[in-house]
Amino acid sequence: MELQYVSTRDASEVVSASQAILKGLANGGGLYVPTRIPQLEVSLQELSTMTYQQVAYEVMKLFLTDFTKEELQTCIARAYDDKFDTEEIAPMVYADGAYYLELFHGSTIAFKDMALSILPHLMITSARKNQVKNDIVILTATSGDTGKAALAGFAGVEGTKIIVFYPKDGVSPIQKKQMVTQAGDNTLVVGINGNFDQAQTGVKKMFADEALAEELEATGYQFSSANSINIGRLVPQIVYYVYAYSRLLANERIADGEQINVVVPTGNFGNILAAFYAKNMGLPIDKLICASNENKVLFDFFQTGVYDKNREFVLTNSPSMDILISSNLERLIYRIAGEDAAKNKDLMQQLTSEGKYEITPQMKEQLADFYGNYTNEEETAEVIRDLYEKTGYVIDTHTAVASGVYNKYKKATGDDKATVIASTASPFKFARSVMGAIDDAYLEMEDFALVDKLSEIANVTVPKAVEEIRTAEIRHKTICEVDEMPQVVRNFLK
Ligand SMILES: *Cc1c(COP(=O)(O)O)cnc(C)c1O
After folding, report:
1. Is the shortest distance between the CB of 202 and ligand 1 below 6 Å?
2. What is the pLDDT of residues 298-326, one digit of tens each?
3. Is the CB of 267 under 6 A from ligand 1?
4. Could you tell me if 171 and 189 are in contact, meaning their C-beta atoms sit under 8 angstroms apart?
5. Is any ligand 1 atom within 6 A of the Cβ of residue 398?
6. Is there an atom of ligand 1 within 6 Å of 424 CB?
7. Confidence at 443, pLDDT banded by 50, 70, 90
8. Residue 135 in contact with residue 127, Cβ under 8 Å?
């Protein structure tokens, strides 16, 4: 039976998987969710003998039921190839009592590659299936990692254009350099005078702008989204949790069916939502541990049942988690609201008008599988230093937030289940913060000297993605105000 997708804000808006991938956002601003969560069809034992690509097929076929076997396998083969620097695709490293699932071995050394290397292929296949003749214009707001990963995924893909907006002062120097050096005639990278939430709101407005859509249609274009709201992003992220479990089983670190915990450094709530879906597919996950930095809206939400974005926005050393509106949380809210679109819509409207909402006690009860906590900047740095001094293993700032929250969780509960920490970026991507945490004497050094030093102390080769930008030329210099975003798009598509 074909699995359908429904809008979280309108029960009458039901589409196929390929249509949901093409559209990204539902009409009226809702997000597409599957009408049921499919159950794994193969045993954990069988999964433990499979490659990453095979696990990906077993998981994704259950969600993308209108793709043929051949289509899906082709997408998977094109995505998870030698763009990754290891055949395992997502290797696991055990250090100081936890398993670090390294999701940063793709072309931009951050976890967003896991989904964005396959999204262009899913999208082109979806377009073909739905007789779409227009070129697809990918519009993305990024707090750093999404932008480059999306650019890398879509650059040069025929029938697509990609426009990325980033907060001018809200991304790391290396992240910025990675983006503004992007090659490809179909790419545009724009800095905005504003923060990530403003960039994201600006992009959402353009998606909802019907006049703009008509204008584009007339010139042979249509928008789609590569942001983590697209189910074509979400579904590939479920894969690596299943894969991680299968590796633990294959390596006899756990028994068949034994429960594990998962810790996720969280911003937009996409990665941890994928873990929640994996759990609901039957993967033996106990706690979903949601780690925040000082922008701890989610921690407060899990504590109180009140989601309140009315607070100061803090710029931290884990910038990809500097987010006050976690867009993907809406999918969880919809679910704990009993899949009631009207109820969810009401809460989301409160978020827009008042900047906050409160869930009911019955809804809050359904969050028992989640544990939320956060670390401040000092704690995050301490985690990096401690782990390095104890084990020699170097983690990035985002992963360190997760690791610090896991330490707090263990201390609070005594729970010693095998635990997988999603390691979302290579330390090379945030070399300055990472090295500064280990020893602030390193801060005297230039960016690339730091990179070389990091390579030396961690005993890890400098990743290709970093080597490439040492000398690359800057191609994108556009900076604009938030309200100029639509004009920038028009100019590019002219
Ligand atoms: C995007 C990102 C996150 C946050 O993931 P979400 O799915 O938005 O919650 C965490 N760490 C890094 C390095 C990221 O790029």
Report:
1. no
2. 999 999 999 999 999 999 999 989 999 99
3. yes
4. no
5. yes
6. yes
7. very high
8. no
Average pLDDT estimate for 245-250:
98
* Ligand 1 in reach of 268 Cβ (< 6 A): yes
Q: Establish how many alpha carbons lie within 13 A of residue 152's alpha carbon, considering only the half-sphere containing its beta carbon.
A: 25
Instruction: Find the 391 Cα to ligand 1 centroid distance in Å.
Output: 25
17 alpha carbon to ligand 1 midpoint, in Å? 24
H/E element, 421:
strand 419-423
| 479 CA distance to ligand 1 middle (Å) | 24
| Ligand 1 centroid, distance to 320 Cα (angstroms) | 5
**Tens-place pLDDT, residues 148-204:** 889 998 988 888 999 999 999 988 787 888 899 999 999 999 999 999 889 989 998
Instruction: Residue count of the chain, please give it.
Output: 494
Kindly calculate the radius of gyration of the chain based on its CA atoms and give it in whole angstroms. 21
CB 143 within 8 A of CB 167: yes
Closest CA to 453 of 438, 469, 468, 465: 438
What is the share, in percent, of the chain residues with pLDDT greater than 70?
100
Judge if the beta carbon of residue 112 lies within 6 A of ligand 1.
yes
Is residue 229 within 6 Å of ligand 1 at its C-beta? no
DSSP secondary-structure letter at 441? Answer: G
In terms of Cβ atoms closer than 10 Å to its own Cβ (0-12, 13-18, 19+), residue 319 is: buried
pLDDT tens string 282-297: 999 999 999 999 999 9
Distance of CA 228 from the midpoint of ligand 1 (Å): 9
CA dihedral defined by 410, 412, 414, 420, rounded to 10 degrees? -20
Ligand 1 centre from 275 Cα, in Å?
A: 13
